[in-house]
Amino acid sequence: MREEVRWFAERMEEVLRENDHRGGWKDMSALELFSCFLGEVYELDSALWHGDGDVVKECCDVANYAMMIADKVRRKKRVVDEGREDGDQFLRCSFCGKPSAEVEYLVAGPNVYICNTCVRVCQAIVDEERMKKDV
Ligand SMILES: [Zn+2]
Fold first, then answer.
1. Is the pLDDT of residue 94 over 50?
2. What are the residue boundaries of the structural domains of the chain, listed by start?
3. Stretch 70-78: mean pLDDT, rounded?
4. How far apart are CA 55 and CA 89, in angstroms?
5. Is the dihedral of CA 98, 99, 100, 102 positive or negative?
6. Distance 110 CA to ligand 1 centre (A)
7. 118 CA to centre of ligand 1 in angstroms
8. Ion ligand 1 nearby residues (CB, 5 A)
9. ∠65-70-87 over CA atoms, to 5°?
């Protein structure tokens, strides 16, 4: 393992231990974790550009949520085809093109499908546009 990866993994573990009192991530869904991940990305942004916080710690928070999501996916792959009882294996997200087997959720609309990741990306875009409007 590279020296810098080992160093960073140790920092990630330290930050995880500081947050152990919050309980594990096993009860959180990948969607909830992704939402937290996005929140940490904004905190990292703030630490980097406004000196508002510890950059290394914020990097660890971002990486830890990414790790938790990867851990969830590794442990449990689920496909939810809303409105599709037959569970067609060849369904794909209409936005990113990923097949249903490679995403956690695939939500069906009339002749379109969207995966959980693309839902979050869309939400982040809408949130950002709203924030711009408010300024
Ligand atoms: Zn997608």
1. yes
2. 1-76, 77-135
3. 70
4. 43
5. negative
6. 16
7. 4
8. 93, 95-96, 115, 118
9. 125
